[in-house]
Amino acid sequence: MSALDPIISRKIQLMSAFCTSCVVIGHAHNLTIPFSETARSGFDLIAYSTEHFVRFGLARLATPFFFAVAAFLLFIGAASVCDR
Known about the structure:
Blueprint: H1 6-27, H2 42-56, H3 62-82
C-alpha cells in the first residue's frame, strides 16, 4: 500500500480537527436568547447572529468533509490494491 503524501496527510489532519470542533459546536446549545429578545440590545443581536452563522453555516461543512475524506482514502487504498 502506498503511503499518503505527508503534506496532504497534515492538511487532512488539520481540517479534521477543525471539522471535529465544528461538530461539537453544532451540537452545543450555547445561546438561550430568543430571537425576539435580540432587538433590545445590539450585543445580543451580534451574539445571536454569530452563533447562528457558526451553527448553521460553518458547522454544516463537517459532514460533507468527512464523507469526502473517507471516499478519498478509500479510493487511494483501492488504487494501491489494484496496482499489485
